[in-house]
Specification:
Layout: H1 2-20, H2 32-41, H3 46-64, E1 67-70, H4 74-87, E2 100-104, H5 132-139, E3 143-148, E4 163-164, E5 168-169, H6 195-205, H7 213-216, H8 234-242, E6 250-252, E7 258-260
Parallel strand pairs: 2-3
Antiparallel strand pairs: 1-3, 4-5, 6-7
Helix pairs in contact: 1-3, 3-4
Length: 278
Amino acid sequence: MPWLQLQAVAAVLSLVAAAGVSHGFEFHEVTVEAIHLGFSNGSLTSTALVRFYLDQISRLNPLLRAVIEVNPDSLRQAARADARRTSSGGRLTGGLHGIPVLLKDNIATRDALNTTAGSFALLGSVVKRDAGVVVRLRQAGAVVLGKANPSEWSNFRVVDSRWSARGGQSLPVRPSGVIPIIPRPDTVGPMCRTVSDVVQVLEAIVGYDAFDSAATGAASKYIPAGGYMQFLKKRWAERQENRRPQWLLPRIRGDGTKGVRAAPHHNEEPRGRGDREP
């Protein structure tokens, strides 16, 4: 199985390398800050970004099975974000405005998407309202791209990890989210490429939720005044933004052809005092 997973990763990365070479904007492993810059200088639109990710899902999901459903309204949401950015004179370029996000299929959305925890038992059911975190994401301007494939019922039903009846067996790419099995232990959190991106999403989703007071009432008291961005050290964040897991990237050879490395060399991710700020 590990060898098959490595082969799958190599195949995925070959497809990724082929998909992005024709674009002027560098989409691969793009960060929130890079997206903001693209919006500001006109090299990127929300519509182009959403189209790129929808294309990647179409190419890669038959193998990864990481996305259980895409949002048929995502391109309309992106177009609205572009229109608002244009009408504001380019001022709406911060936060998560126009940036696509995937939600785990445990997180309720009152829209065209299903919320099923990966189970056919809930397919077609309609939730009363958006989950609190979805309300906050929408207020921050995020585009809901779709739902990610969970372990069905978050393993409350005993199944293989990352398997659901609706989505099948996914490779290990998944975010965190909740249909509650019991009220408090399961929590929602962001999964992003960099610490800076995580902090920006966290900043958008934290807070008291009157519909989930048992879980958020006490915890919301610990949200720092002024938010979390103030604790992000600029130099450290910049270094993390530029740090890529090289063994997961296509390698460009001297003759211009591409190759994919399936595993890291033992000394490619050095650890030591230089890895973090004092």
